[in-house]
Amino acid sequence: MTFSHARTPAQSLSEYGRGVAGGLVFSLPLLFTVEVWDAAITLSPLRLLAWLGLTFALLLLYNRFAGLRKEATWLECAIDSVEELGLGIVISAFVLWILGRFEGAAFNEIFSKTVMEAMTVAIGVSVGTAQLGESENTSSDSPGDEAPDDESNDAHGQNFWSQLAITLCGAVLFVNNVAPTDEILQLAVEVAFWKLFLIAILCLVCGAYLLFYAEFRGANRISRPQNAPILVRDAVLNYAVALLAAALMLFFFGRFENESFQTIVTQTVIAGIPATLGASVGRLLLQVNSDG
Amino acid sequence: MANSQNGFGKNALEWSVFALGCALLCATIGYLGVEAFTSRDAPPRLEISVGPSRKLNDKGARFLEIRVENSGHTTAQNVEIEVKTPRETASFSLDYVPREGEKSGYVVLSQPFESGQLRARVKSFTQ
What we know:
Chain A is mostly helical. Chain A has helices spanning about 10-30, 35-40, 45-65, 75-100, 105-130, 160-175, 180-190, 195-210, 230-250, 260-285. In chain A, helix 4 (about 75-100) packs across helix 5 (about 105-130) and helix 9 (about 230-250) packs across helix 10 (about 260-285).
């Protein structure tokens, strides 16, 4: 088994501290959201299992493509992901307990709430560790079997699949905070259809602008499209990933239960607003400290 | 455990955290797996129990705790409870009663009543 780093226990403890801080920073809104507590109780065990699986996959992708250590292998990223999930469970259990969310509750309820919240906390731990820490100083003689570079590169040298993964992570991170709330459904049923259409167009355009023309820090990693067809392709792809993230989060928080197809679509468009911000601006933020 | 050639590797603390994460993850997956495998898509089973009445104020009002237990495999939501005596009717609602769990609420009755005259029932719920 090969690793890309060597740290003292003190350094590790410091990194875990940053992870815990990051976990709280990024997940605190959801830890205080009643809709998430209620969703935990109403969702089936199978849905919670799927939510756990999706979170692990997101952590794996984020650690591999935007994490602190660019030389980390997939196995090392998987180990980190397990650590982050474990920390997420411990942190969410402690916060919910100290907020009195377990008072008079059966074990089933305590367990479901903890697992539901732990996934978001785990994502926060991963992002916090990478974003709040200093870049790793890895040795030039890193392990012989380096992380395999098996993804194809486009003409600009950007890794398509890694960017797609980071886009998804950024979108999930942002939409996670609003997807479980009742306001999404309320907006979806109240907003006129022509305004929803306008929202979709604006998200498409703004996402492209923020990504390619606003010149945020980290935007140098993203190649500006050289012609209109490529611009349209990248803008549509960015928005498509945002909508996918929005739909996934709404589904996992049970917001599609017993709803018509029309309401499902309109909820996805509404939740697509923060998801688009996450897919564009969030994607740039997630890569600021990475050397990927 | 470190690489033999260059000293890279995880220290004892990191392996401990990983072991804790593994244990918690395995326990979580195991419990959810068992729940998913054994639970049926059956409706909630709600049963009511009434606690003793207690004095609320000096005007003769009394309050009682009403416990609602759900022994079914599905959470009951928006549960409406109705309590009747010969002289008055009171009600309250619960946002949810989780599967294999219970919740309680209180009703206030201002008119005197005999214990055998009180009737409590689940009026409605959603899934």
